[in-house]
From TrEMBL:
Alphabetized Gene3D superfamilies for the sequence: 2.60.120.200, 3.90.550.50
Biased composition (Basic and acidic residues): 73-85
Protein name stated in the entry: Galectin domain-containing protein
Annotated TM spans: 20-42
Gene that encodes the chain: LOC110700500
Domain of life: Eukaryota
Cofactor: Mn(2+)
Recorded coiled-coil stretches: none
Chain positions covered by the region annotation Disordered: 63-97
Pathway this chain belongs to: Protein modification; protein glycosylation
Amino acid sequence: MKRGGGKLETYMGVTRTRSVQILALLGLLYMIFMTFEVPFVFKSVSQDTSGVSFQNDAFVRPQQLDSEEEMQEKEAPIRPLKEPLRASSVSPKPQRQMREYKTLSGLVFDWRALDSTEKDGFSGLHKSAITAFQVGEKLWEDLKSGKIRIDVEKAAENRTETSCPNSVSLSCDEFTKKGKVMVLPCGLTLGSHITLVGKPRIAHAEHDPKISLLKDGDQSLMVSQFMLELIGLKTVDGEDPPRVLHYNPRLKGDWSGKPVIEQNTCYRQQWGTSVRCEGWKSRPDEETVDGLIKCEKWIRDDDSNTEESRATWWFSRLLSRPKKVTVDWPFPFAEDKLFVMTVSAGLEGYHVNVDGRHVTSFPYRTGFSLEDATGLTLKGDIDTHSVFAASLPSSHPSYAPQRHLEFSDRWQAPPLPSGPVELFIGILSAGNHFAERMAVRKSWMQHRLIKNSKVVARFFVALHGRKEVNVELKKEAEFFGDIVIVPYMDSYDLVVVKTVAICEYGVRTVAAKHIMKCDDDTFVRVDAVIKEANKIPEGSSLYVGNINYYHKPLRSGKWSVTYEEWPEEDYPPYANGPGYILSSDVANFIVSEFEKHKLRLFKMEDVSVGMWVENFNSTKPVEYVHSLKFCQFGCIEDYYTAHYQSPKQMICLWNKLQQLGRPVCCNMR
């Protein structure tokens, strides 16, 4: 028994030894095979995938990077925050040179060769362009060198921060000296309240009333009204501040012929839907604000509330003693009578009390926050005795425009695709519109067609008059990779140059089939816009938008146009500026004529494009496609584009589009 067991153990030991030797041999052979095979495999993959683009992968990384600079270029969209983006100086690849992200616009404007004696009265605008590009050229060089950044940092060190008082009070004289503006340094917060003591003036005659129309034969109308407004003083410099709350008691002169109170909001001169309180109590089924109705009842002129009826009411009350007593009060404001009005910030909206009685409540609207209300103004027919603001926020919110930027990789633009794209969207923006650009990035620029680079979107910005804005703008451009800087000093009259730059980028850098222009307060339904453009047969020239026909220039007023600026009596057909689409051949024509200094410039950007399309139409037919869904003012049902949308409204529109699967407005116009 023992001998048999020993033989078995000897046999098993030899078997195990041979198995280990065989496995070791196989492992050695595998290693030799991989040593010779791996370089061949990588070489084959590298050759097979050259020149091929993928839908989900932006590009195929090469086996070896030539330099640190090329490494920076290839690893987009992760762009450096502090180090400026620059082109590689090491043997660039010609076929990719135009496909890489460039901070500076490639538009050629040789102002030295421009003829300043141009005819047709347009030399003035050309001279403005020459000056703007001269200043911009110097400013851009200083910006690149870092000189401006150093100056801005020194200025920031010496700047003192404004304190946040718990309350602010102004007497009549103080309020008048400040231009009837009370500054609220840190805005409002929940529970803040403002009290105004004032006296409406006696009605006066107006020959051109703004709140009513003159009846036939009447030369004037008796008017008495005033406006209390909470405004955003620190939103954007150089623009009309948004009206967070517009409160307008109209004692006399309203088109209804009755005393009314009108409440509203306004963003970039675009008013929302007004809430009018006309003396009727809000319906029981109407939504309330913090449990309070929007409009209280007051005695109207057609109510039978004479002294005799009121005496009868008191007598009946004494006799019957009802369980619930209701009192009808007159309109809360009267000519030449003192009143005390308090505006308080609740959880759901503003509440207005006059002489201790609740009068109106106005719900907060999307896009307007309490902290944005950094000023109070008073206009119209009123004598102010004093103004008080109390329970103000104690902490200091940052009002620096760039505070809205979120430097996260999530919001960076995808790299440009290797081939042509279906649609390029150029977004006009101002240097200090940091909040607007961030809202666009976080809303419709998250569309799948943009994320997979079938559609490309870029902001087009000129240089700003404030150095610190340009420093932040350059930093923003380098990180997000979605800003193209047109190197001239920005101004309203030269917005048209940025439109030409959009055409240049869309034709030469992106090679897009269609080029769309919109504003940074325009919400775009990307898929709907592409479908609208694709309704036109392939190869046709097109001009799509909300097109105006037979419009005439205004010869007086704020937006007047002189005969020197526009000699003709009519404008050509033109699409409204907030959103329109051009085919690539039309865009190429615009760029070519501009660089030859043959393009006629006009300060109204949308009219200019209509003029250029009309010129192109004389050589090749253009399909004009008109649609009201490219909304000029606000938002409409089933919109393609919605204009005058605040940053918060942009996010709201995007959320509704994602949640509901269909376009729904946040604040209807």
